[in-house]
Each structure stands twice: as structure tokens, then as C-alpha cells.
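Protocol step 4 of 6: structure prediction from sequence.
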Amino acid sequence: MSHDLAARTANAVALLKVSPHTLDGFLKLSEIFESTTLDPHSRETVILTVAARNQCHLCVDMHEAKLTALGPAPDTERLRAVEEFTLRVLASSGAVSDEDLGRFQEAGYTRQNALEVVLGIGTYTVSTFANRLTRAA
């Protein structure tokens, strides 16, 4: 992480400390999301999809760096499927069609992974909204 990105991240955390409950909630949810059965590339793709949609430039920069640090994705088509599914979940407030869920599963994901995408969306909605509200984004 570059010095500038580290400083921006530290600033965002400092701003979020105004609400210890929000900071603690995000950190706990983030830890849980990191322990899901989604692979690291897929988790970062979910996070980036939420961050880009919610226009949180700090999160986009941070998670692009994390995704790059993971190295090349073993299957870019699979990542496109998780990105598309994440967008469908967001657009439908979770009420995805059977076809959307089927395409997600055809890409090698499970119903458990689908619910883990929802967890990632919730987790990073907290982060991105808080960062924008505090002007850290």
C-alpha cells in the first residue's frame, strides 16, 4: 500500500471512530466476510463492485491494490460472473431471477457463495456509505 493510500485509510478510520459501534461493526463484518468460502479474487471483486457502484474512491483504490497484490486471477470469466451477480443482487435488492442465480452457479459458485455475496454487499455498503458521509472517500 502506498504511503498516500495508507494515510487516506488511516484518516478514514479516524473519521469512523466518531462512532465506535459503526467502526467495530464494519471490522467484525469484514473479518467474517474474509473467512467465507469465496476465494480471495472473488471477495475483492465483490468489494470493488460495491465500491465502484457507491463511488467510494478510497475503497476502489485500496481494493484495486489488494486485487493486484493477489496476482493474476486464475479464471477471469468466473470473476466477471461474480461481478455481474453482485450488480444483479444490488439492482434487485436481493430478488435475483432464477436465471441470474443459475448463471452464477454455472460459473462454479454455490448457493452458499450467493449468500456470501450478500454479506459482502452489506459489509462494504457500511464502509462505502460511512466513508462518503465522513468525506473520507
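Step 5 (inspection) to follow. Residues 13 and 23 are 8 Å apart (CA to CA).
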